[in-house]
Amino acid sequence: MEQSVYSVKQLNSYIKNSLENDPFLSNLTVQGEVGRCTYHSSGHIYFSIKENTDVIDCVMFRNQAASLKFKIETGQQIVIKGHVGVYEAQSKYQLYAHEIEPAGLGDLYKKYEKLKAELEERGLFSEMYKKPIPKYSLKIGVATSKTGAVINDIINVSSRRNPYVQIYLKPTMVQGEMAAQSIVNSIKYLDEQDLDVIIVGRGGGSLEDLWCFNEEIVAQAIFDCQTPIISAVGHETDFSISDFVADLRAPTPSAAAELAVFRIDEFENDLERYKMAIRSEIDGKLELYKNKTEVYESKIEKHSPMAKLTTYKQLISEYRDKLSYSFDDRFAEAKRLVPDYKDRLKKYFDDKFLKRKHTLQLFIEKLEGLSPLEKISRGFAYVSGADGPIVSTKDVDVGDDISLIIKDGKIDAKVSGKQDGEIYGKE
Question: Which helix (H) or strand (E) holds 401?
Fold first, then answer.
């Protein structure tokens, strides 16, 4: 019977499926010593663990590595939770790490996570309680060991950035059973020294070495401190409880000094820039006010009483000249026109007089024609009774006494009879 022939890819796939489908290999915990270790720029961590001559290649991908709480270093004993798989491109199996912690420190990590959760719930990590770090600090307190690289690094960085800054060191135990209380005492002491900012920290180390910065009394002392605090504990990858409570976390003590101390050269440059800006602003304002002053002076001069008086005197002189010239001209013109106006006025009044005379004559003639005396002189008589003029037969009765006024006298008579009706034209 002929045996089947498989490709390399098929064999690799078979081995891969066999390993990854094995319940034991899909979820296991392995302890070993770190051999080689590489932090890749992609964020993945490639390393190996060994025991005597036995070695297993391992990888921890970026997503899981982001939650790692310490830096993996050669020679460390670590505990890995993960699964075994095959990297087909190189035909080798390796351990894919999901979680990693230092061997023997599991209880410390649990204690760390528990305290962190409790303090966060109490609000000690809240941004609302964090105080701003002064931009121009001149008095800086440091709570750390009086020996070692930390204080030297802080002094070197500070003196390089600003030689005028004063460093107040409070020697502090930063490792061991009494370290937590020593840190608390140092924070309280420095808080009473009227400082601008306080740096609390130490250099790198294991979780056990840094544990004093994870104590609740240290966290409470940092929270209660009235002076702003920068926490600088361990390396950049190390996070302690004090980092979360502090007003600002620095990845290293040197970085803490850079955050606390302002550069004197930049400060001097800023001062020079501000001085130039202020001078420019003042010069601009002065020029503006100078121009406004000139405008106001011009307006004041233009509207001053003396200016107005001069203007009015000039106008009066001009009006006087115009008035004198106009009066003389008008007087001469009037004098020249007087004879003509006199003749025209005489003719006007003569014409008016003749017209009025003729009109009066007409009115006289009309009045004479309407005069009762004129009528009486032509044979008419004015008849009156006891009650006044008689103009109708109804005004008298037979037997009434009447008077007749004629041209040359008066006749008294008595009514002997009367006849109603129109009698003109009858004989």
Answer: strand 401-406
pLDDT of residue 198: 95
- The one-letter amino acid at 206: S
Is pLDDT of 20 > 60? yes
Q: Is residue 230 within 8 Å of 252, Cβ to Cβ?
A: no
Polymer length in residues for the chain: 427
Nearest to 101 by CA among 117, 114, 112, 87: 112
Its pTM stands at 0.50
Q: How far is CA 375 from the centre of its chain?
A: 111
Q: Residue 251 pLDDT > 50, yes or no?
A: yes
Question: What confidence tier does 105 reach under pLDDT thresholds 50, 70, 90?
Answer: low
Q: Angle between the 149-161 and 253-260 helix axes, to the nearest 10 degrees?
A: 30
At 379, is the pLDDT very low, low, confident or very high (cuts 50, 70, 90)?
Answer: low
**93, burial (CB in 10 Å: exposed 0-12, middle 13-18, buried 19+):** middle
Contacts of 232 (CB under 8 A, 6+ apart): 150, 199, 200, 201, 249, 250, 251, 252, 253, 255, 256
229 within 8 A of 134, measured Cβ to Cβ:
no
Other C-beta atoms lying within 10 Å of the C-beta of residue 99: 13
Q: Are 148 and 181 contacting, i.e. CB atoms less than 8 angstroms apart? A: no
Q: Flag whether pLDDT at 100 surpasses 60.
A: yes
CA dihedral of 206, 210, 216, 218, whole degrees rounded to 10: -170
Query: What stretches of 162-295 adopt beta strand conformation (E)?
Result: 166-171, 197-202, 229-233, 248-249
Strands 45-51 and 28-39: what pairing?
antiparallel
Predicted confidence band at 341 (pLDDT cuts at 50, 70, 90)?
A: confident
* Identity at 57, one-letter amino acid code: D
In 21-60, where does DSSP find H-type helix? 23-26
Q: Tell me how far apart the alpha carbons of residues 331 and 337 are, in angstroms, rounded to a whole number.
A: 10
**Interacting residues of 377 by C-beta distance below 8 A, sequence separation 6+:** 407
d(CA 235, CA 71): 9
Q: How many CA atoms lie within 13 A of 18 on its CB side?
A: 7
Q: Please state, in angstroms and rounded to a whole number, the distance separating the CA atoms of residues 245 and 223.
A: 6
Dist CA 239 CA 113 (whole Å): 11
